Structure formats: structure tokens, C-alpha cells
Amino acid sequence: MENFRREEIGADKIVNRKRCVSMKLERNPPPDRGCLVGIIFFILGLGTLLPWNFFMTASQYFERRLNGTEVHNGTGRVQKEYLFNSWMTLLSQLPLLLFTLLNSMLYQWISERVRIAGSLVLILLLFIFTAALVKVQMGEDRFFSVTMATIWFINSFGAVLQGSCFGLVGKLPPKYNSIFMSGQGLAGTFAALAMLLAIASEADFESAALGYFITPCVGTLVTLLSYLMLPRLEFARFFLNGISSEETETRDELLQDNSKMNGHANGSLTAASKTEAELDCRSDATTQAALPQQAVQAKASVLEVFKKIWVMAFCVTFVFSVTLSVFPAVTVDVRTTFPGKWELYFASVCCFLTFNIGDWLGRTATSMFRWPRKESRLFPALVVSRVAFVPLLMLCNVQPRHYLPAFFTHDAAFIIIMILFSLSSGYLVCLSMSYGPQMVDPKDAETAGALMTFFLALGLSIGASLSFLLRALV
């Protein structure tokens, strides 16, 4: 008797659950007035990659502060090499790998609001500390250690921020994911333009560096305020607090049930039934907890999902391994063959600005056309072919060099290689990240997205590790 009553209660809960979902599905989403939600997610995308791009683009500032140390090598005194760009790349990407894994556990214990807002506040404080450090005189070894520690912590919080934002934007329609990634693509351009303005200001070294590092402080503060504004927008509330992934799984079933019910005179919900469903929607968490496990379709295991997306996981790992192995550790040391004032702007324009604009254009191109298809064998072949950029960039006018000849010495050759290098990177990365979740059932899309993010971080870390070897071989 007691079992029968439990089954009856469970059946009532399922019926009420279906009514709740049905009412949500029948509601049309409110308009995104002024595209404010789109603008906010563009700013969030920009804010997630500000730490990495501002430290990377400021390599000239850091190298200038680290150029004063000399050491004995047995034959005399030589300038100490800190390999700043390689260490900066490695200590930026290792936290991304570690904290991407950590974030998959944090979301169960720490709310999304605390993770995003808390990370932005801590990143803002670290940027303020970096700006203040411009005016602090200290030894090169100590400055190097403090800077590396700052890079580690600021990118750790950035990894939590990025993973949380990817989960947040995944609740919205797909076009907002493209908007978010476009913001990420422009973060590097924003940093490169800030560096160009600092150089063009012709201020003294310290003032220019201080103005440069104040810029990400303002950018991070704007990102934080934009995120706090998100819950106030009706369009955002509809999706962020609306239909869950479990509810969307019953969409087809509900539509079939509704079509059958509409064929009968007594099939529509009565006023009492609607009231009951509305009350049940308000206690959505309680209802979900009461649902029997068999009412929710089981998700595939991580291994099963990986077997379906391993090709795309390999592709995103390989693309970033190639990209980070030479950019910026090798490319930032390419020198112009035209002496004069152009030397001050060469790295900012031809290395950072060219790469980031090309990367952004490559990502944006995927919204207009997608070739090759995800099933095509040509896609991984194109990804692997990018390894040709490694020797091409190493044979440019990288200085100082010890082993390889400089074959592409003209500025135009380096710019053309960088354009093709950046366009292919942005295009293939964006395709890989979007194809991955499409290769599994909708119920497993979230798991696929998390796996793809992990392999993205893995590719960045592998590339950063390879940069030490490749720079030493030049």
C-alpha cells in the first residue's frame, strides 16, 4: 500500500513537472532590447582574456626591466637571459589547465555568481598591483619572481572566470556563444592598441607603462559591472533561470502529448490545473528532487563522450600546441630590417596586432561558412598541416639567433606568414570547439563542452612547454 502511494505521488510529480515544462516551452522569449545581453557577453569574452593578452603584449616593458643583470659564463660577463616570453607563456597556460579541471568541481560547491564576480575582483586587484609595481624599484631577480607569481595567480583566476563564463553562455541561444568568442578574439587587439597608444604618447618609460597597465584595470572593472547588470535584464533571466537541460530533453514528448490533448475537448488545462502547474514551477527545485531517477534520461559517461569527440579534441589540442609553441616566444623576437622609429612599433604592429586581428577574423568567418564538415577527413589534415608555420616563423629575422639561418628577412614576408598563421588558428579553433558538442546527443553536449575546454587548455600548455625548445633552436 505504501509503495502504491509512493508511485502515485511520483506519477503526480511527473505530471506536474510536465505541465511546468510545457508552460515554459509555450512562452516566447522576450526580446534582447538594444542587444544589451549580447554586448554584455561580448564584454565578458573580452574580460576573460585581458590578463593573458596584456602581460603578453607588454613583453618589451618586462624585458627592458630585466636587461640589467650580468653573470659570469667562464669567459667573461654576459647578460643574463630570463627567457621571459617562454616562462610567461608556460605560467599563463599551466594554471588554465589545472584550474579548468578544478572549476569542474568548484561549480558544485561555489555558485556561479561568486566564481565570476570573485574572479573579476581578484584579477582587478592583481592588475592594480602590477600597475603600482611600475613605480617600485627592485632587483631584476626579485622583479622576475614577483612578476611570474602575479602571472600565475592572475591566470588562475582567469581560468575559473573563463570556464564559468563558458558554462553561463551555454544556457543562451548559440549565437551568444559566437558573440562571447568574438569578444575573446578582440582581447588581444585591445591590448595591442593600448600598447601602441602608450608608445605613441612619447611619455617617459614609467609613465607609458603605468598608463598601459591602468587600461586593463578599467577594462576589468567595466566587465565586473556588466556582469552584475545581467540579472536585471529580462532576456537574460528567461534563459539563465528558465528551461533546464533536463526539461529540454522532454520537449518532443511534451509536444506529442499536447498535440494529442488538443484533439480532445477536455484536453486543455483547467484554471485549477494551471494554478497547480504555476505553483509547481515556483518550487522547481523541490519538484526536481522528488523525480524518480528513471524519469531523467541517463547521460553518457565521460569516456563514451570522448570516444565520439576525440578527433575534435585532438584538433583543438594540436592547433593550440602549434600556435603557442612559436607565438609569442619566437615571433616577438623578430626584428625589422628598417632601422628608425619603426623599430618601436614593429613588434606591437606586426606580431601582436596582426596576429590578434587575424585570429579574430578567423573566428568570425565561422559564422558565415563552415568548411570542411565535421565528418570530413580533410579537417584534421588541415589542422596537422599548420605545423609548417613552425619552421617558417623560425626562419624569419629572429634575433638573437645561434643555429638557424634567417631566410625570410624582409618585414613583408614575416607579415604575410603571420596573417596566414593567425587566420588559420582562429578559424580551426572555432570550428573544433563548435563541432565537438555537435557530435554527441544533446544531453551530453555539456560534458563534450567541458572536455573540449580541457583539451584546449592542454594544447596551450603543450605549446607553452615546446616554446623553450624552439626558441633555443633558432
From TrEMBL:
<dbReference type="GO" id="GO:0015862">
    <property type="term" value="P:uridine transmembrane transport"/>
</dbReference>
<dbReference type="Pfam" id="PF01733">
    <property type="entry name" value="Nucleoside_tran"/>
</dbReference>
<dbReference type="GO" id="GO:0035364">
    <property type="term" value="P:thymine transport"/>
</dbReference>
<feature type="transmembrane region" description="Helical">
    <location>
        <begin position="448"/>
        <end position="470"/>
    </location>
</feature>
<keyword id="KW-1133">Transmembrane helix</keyword>
<dbReference type="InterPro" id="IPR034764">
    <property type="entry name" value="ENT1/ENT2"/>
</dbReference>
<dbReference type="GO" id="GO:0005337">
    <property type="term" value="F:nucleoside transmembrane transporter activity"/>
</dbReference>
<comment type="similarity">
    <text>Belongs to the SLC29A/ENT transporter (TC 2.A.57) family.</text>
</comment>
<keyword id="KW-0472">Membrane</keyword>
<dbReference type="GO" id="GO:0015854">
    <property type="term" value="P:guanine transport"/>
</dbReference>
<dbReference type="GO" id="GO:0035344">
    <property type="term" value="P:hypoxanthine transport"/>
</dbReference>
<feature type="transmembrane region" description="Helical">
    <location>
        <begin position="34"/>
        <end position="55"/>
    </location>
</feature>
<feature type="transmembrane region" description="Helical">
    <location>
        <begin position="114"/>
        <end position="134"/>
    </location>
</feature>
<dbReference type="GO" id="GO:0016323">
    <property type="term" value="C:basolateral plasma membrane"/>
</dbReference>
<keyword id="KW-0812">Transmembrane</keyword>
<keyword id="KW-0813">Transport</keyword>
<dbReference type="InterPro" id="IPR036259">
    <property type="entry name" value="MFS_trans_sf"/>
</dbReference>
<dbReference type="InterPro" id="IPR002259">
    <property type="entry name" value="Eqnu_transpt"/>
</dbReference>
<feature type="transmembrane region" description="Helical">
    <location>
        <begin position="181"/>
        <end position="200"/>
    </location>
</feature>
<dbReference type="GO" id="GO:0015853">
    <property type="term" value="P:adenine transport"/>
</dbReference>
<protein>
    <submittedName>
        <fullName>Solute carrier family 29 member 2</fullName>
    </submittedName>
</protein>
<feature type="transmembrane region" description="Helical">
    <location>
        <begin position="412"/>
        <end position="436"/>
    </location>
</feature>
<feature type="transmembrane region" description="Helical">
    <location>
        <begin position="309"/>
        <end position="330"/>
    </location>
</feature>
<feature type="transmembrane region" description="Helical">
    <location>
        <begin position="146"/>
        <end position="169"/>
    </location>
</feature>
<feature type="transmembrane region" description="Helical">
    <location>
        <begin position="82"/>
        <end position="102"/>
    </location>
</feature>
<feature type="transmembrane region" description="Helical">
    <location>
        <begin position="378"/>
        <end position="400"/>
    </location>
</feature>
<feature type="transmembrane region" description="Helical">
    <location>
        <begin position="212"/>
        <end position="230"/>
    </location>
</feature>
<dbReference type="GO" id="GO:0005886">
    <property type="term" value="C:plasma membrane"/>
</dbReference>
<feature type="transmembrane region" description="Helical">
    <location>
        <begin position="342"/>
        <end position="358"/>
    </location>
</feature>
<dbReference type="GO" id="GO:0015213">
    <property type="term" value="F:uridine transmembrane transporter activity"/>
</dbReference>
